[in-house]
Every structure is written in structure tokens, then in C-alpha cells.
Amino acid sequence: VIGLADTLGRAQPEEVSSLVRRCIEAEGGNADRFAMHMHDTGGMAQANCVEGLKQGIVEFDSAVGGCGGCNFAPGAKGNLSTQKLLAVLENYGLSHGVNKDILSSTHSFLEGSLKRELDPESGFSPPR
Q1: 45-54 vs 82-91: helix axis angle to the nearest 10?
Q2: Cα-to-chain-centroid distance, residue 42
Q3: Residue 124 to residues 20, 28, 45, 81: CA-CA distances in angstroms?
Q4: DSSP assignment, residue 9?
Q5: Is pLDDT of 122 > 90?
Q6: Tens digits of per-residue pLDDT, 47-97?
Q7: Which residues have a Cβ under 8 Å from the Cβ of 85 and sit 6 or more positions away?
Q8: Is 67 a catalytic residue?
Q9: Which tens digits make up the pLDDT trace of 87-97?
Q10: Could you write out the three-class secondary structure of 65-110?
Q11: Angle CA(25)–CA(26)–CA(31) in degrees, nearest 5?
């Protein structure tokens, strides 16, 4: 699997769409060769994942509550939160198999352990 990443979290959906399209074409139209890893610094991680989803990518990295960051990119926000990714998948009618009660408990546990508020659990549902 080839990971397409936006480590800085600054990519825009139209840029991601173009990149994803070109990468899939270069691999003979085989979207299942790709995964996406989006950071959410600019607030576009969900929309960027939608662009990949529209083109057949079905593997996405995420982190509970958007934990993470990048040592090499000061100021970069964490990864796309799992909660927000699930909202995207559900909006598209896709099953994910994630137990949301356990996810919620894990989110609360991490907030307490890290002593900071994480990305909220509620995600938006982007238009199709």
C-alpha cells in the first residue's frame, strides 16, 4: 500500500483530488493500492479524505480525538480524528466496524491521561 499524506495539514480538496487521480492512473486505475494519512491543521482533513473516497480509496489513517502531530512540522495539528473519519464513512453509507462506545471511552481516557481537550467527538457530514 502506498500512503498519500498531508503531514502539514494544509492541502486543499482540489489539490488532493488531482494528486489522487494522477496516482491511481499511474497504478493502472488500482485505487486499492493507496491509503491516505491527513493532518487537520487547516481543517480540511475530512474533505480531503472525501476526495480519496470518491476515487475509490478505502484505507485511511486516523487517531482518537485527533491525537498526533509532526516533529518535523512545527505547528502542524494532529491526525484526522477517528470520530470525524467515521462521520464521513457513515455519510457515505459505509460500514466501519468501530464500536463507538469504546471509541468514546478511549477519547475520555486520553483526555484525562493527557490532561488536555482533544478534538471533539462530533464530526460534520460533508456533502456527497
Answers
A1: 40
A2: 13
A3: 23, 33, 12, 12
A4: S
A5: no
A6: 999 999 999 999 999 999 998 877 777 777 789 999 999 999 999 999 999
A7: 46, 49, 60, 62, 123
A8: no
A9: 999 999 999 99
A10: HHCCCCCCCCCCCCECEHHHHHHHHHHCCCCCCCCHHHHHHHHHHH
A11: 55
Of the CA atoms within 13 Å of residue 71, those in its CB half-sphere come to: 0
The model carries a pTM of 0.87
Separation of alpha carbons 54 and 113, rounded Å: 37
Whole-number Å distance between alpha carbons of 32 and 13 = 20
Catalytic residue among 23, 49, 67, 70: 70
Alpha-carbon span 13 to 11, nearest angstrom: 7
